[in-house]
Amino acid sequence: MGAVAAATSERPGGGPIVSVEGLVKRYGGQEVVRGLSFDIRRGECFALLGPNGAGKTTTLRCCLGLVDPDGGEITVCGEPVPKAAREARIRVGVVPQMDNLDPDFTVAENLRTYGRYFGIAGAVIDARIPRLLDLAGLAGKAGSPIRTLSGGMKRRLTLARALVNDPDLLILDEPTTGLDPQARHLIWDGLRQLVKQGKTILLTTHFMDEAERLATRLAVIDRGALIACDSPRALLAQHVEPEVVEVYGDLARDWAERDGRRIATRLELAGETAFCYARDPRPLLDDLAAQPGVRYLHRPANLEDLFIKLTGRDLRD
Amino acid sequence: MTPNATALPRGAKHWRPPSLSARFYPVWQRNLLVWRKLAAASVLGNIADPLLYMLALGYGIGALIGEVGGMPYIAFIGTGMVCQSAMFTASFEGMYSAFSRMHMQRTWDAIINAPIALDDVMLAEWIWCATKALMSTLAILLVLIALGYGRTPLAIAILPIGFLVGLVFGAFGLVMNALAPGYEFFSYFFTLVLTPMLLLSGVYFPVEQLPTWLAAAAEFLPLKHAIDLARPLMLGRVPGNVLLHVAALAAYAFAAYYVALALTRRRLLK
């Protein structure tokens, strides 16, 4: 493992805000995190990308000090974790995978109660509430009971709750899973604003568009190990041919075996679709134009192509 | 979170001593605020039930049998009910309510993402169970006083006993909570622990009425210790063996809390 060296912060003065070095976590006999190393620089949005069961959530729980690692060193906001996990969490905001707002409280009461867990006085939180609700697009909802909020509103309130202590680092575990496209865009806008304000973000996701839009750098992990770590653009340039032609329909397989494999730099079959990768797509497109009844789509390569190339097409659960 | 936690063998770290910190307070306060919002329903549920039993049995059966243990039957059963309601209130809070917060609402998950440790959450839940037991104790005691019984300064000492009973059964409830796959699991505790406890501790009739061997065994029950303290106090008398009874209750409470904490750490910190 550890084939890819973790990039370290080059910013003078400010070391990495999160440093994970050789993290190992076992459950029973199974190693779910296997020597994972990465650094997160201040002010960046860092995405942990990986299929289900890759060890993303376990890694986050280790960073928060909620799980003791079986090996490795973690530093968060300058504090060694798990030894000083509580001190580290004072500087961190968390958006968990599953909503856990207090259903018996209103929107404002949720924020006020959560602020008290950080030892923040009620008056101080009350002064922060209007700005937090603005950012979450929940202005005017301070007195609303939680059950009257939509799924997207609950997510945004959870984000506002994570900001109640004005954290340096925001940790989000699959922040937009289960949301409709409109709601996802609202969350993304909020996160981009926060990065502009100088916050550091660590998020896990298995949505490639989310990583592509938000992440300044991303780490692809699979089976508990890091397999690539860089900016989305650099990773694409390094691992994937720039042009993709997707060929689909009944005739796709026949065409792929007959012509596709010969013309494309790399070709993958998945169900009824042939993914053809190439530096120059013209020979592919010329050939396809001469095939009646074959449907195809030409597009630039994206993170999904990278992800599939690095982690394979087999289903994970 | 001890410095050498990772050096301990697997499992052993869950049995490290409890951390007792004032950080429990905002979590306890959260429960109090929720309770205040839903107070009417919860007061009715926790207090109306024992009151009805006390009045019906106290007047109904009391009319047939007169005095029991040197006091009118309604005062006898009333004192028992004070302890019983502390027991039920704390057990219920430690099981159903704590399970809702821990498992259904994931409130604890949210709290331990803040700079609050699971130990702080557990301490808050434990003290909250006892706080609710104290409220039940106070309510039923006030009714007894309104009916003309327990009008003695010593009756005030029944309040800390109610709190102590709350610590014992709150901790028992939290042990069950740490092990529960679902709400149904808690009915074992009612059937196998609380109901026998209720019938053998002298709530409804003096323990001396039981067969000798059973009466001797009943001496070990925490509810019996509480009732042995509360009944004399109702009559304005200092109970015998105060230290023994208090120490027994405290031992049950702390031992059960330690087990509950270790099992909860095992369940959630993984």
What would you say this structure looks like, in words?
The complex is a heterodimer of chains A (317) and B (270). By secondary structure, chain A is an alpha/beta fold. Chain A is 35% helix and 27% strand. A six-stranded mixed β-sheet of chain A has the order 6-7-8-3-9-10, with helices on both faces. In chain A, strand 9 (217-222) and strand 10 (225-230) form a beta hairpin. In chain A, helix 3 (107-117) crosses helix 4, helix 5 packs parallel to helix 6 (181-196) and helix 8 (232-239) packs across helix 11 (303-311). The two termini of chain A are 22 Å apart. Chain B is mainly α and 270 residues long. Chain B has one domain (43-268). Chain B has a two-stranded antiparallel sheet with strand order 1-2. Chain B is globular, with a radius of gyration of 19 Å. Classes of the chains: A alpha/beta (317), B mainly alpha (270). At the A-B interface, helix 2 and helix 3 of A face helix 1 and helix 4 of B.
How do you describe this structure in short?
The complex is a heterodimer of chains A (317) and B (270). Chain A is α/β, with parallel strands linked by helices and 317 residues long.
Q: What are the key terms here?
A:
heterodimer, A: 317 residues, alpha/beta, Alpha-Beta Plaits, 11 helices, disordered N terminus, B: 270 residues, 71% helix, globular
Q: Helix-strand pattern of chain A, N to C?
A: EEEHEEHEHHHEHEHEEHEHEEHEH
Helical content of chain B (DSSP H or I, runs of 4+): over 70%
CATH class of one domain in chain A: Alpha Beta
Helices of chain A, by number, come to 11
Of all chain pairs, the largest interface belongs to:
A-B, 33 and 27 residues
Uncertain runs of chain B with pLDDT below 50, 5 residues or more? 1-7
Biggest sheet record of chain A: 6 strands, mixed
Tell me the overall shape of chain B: globular
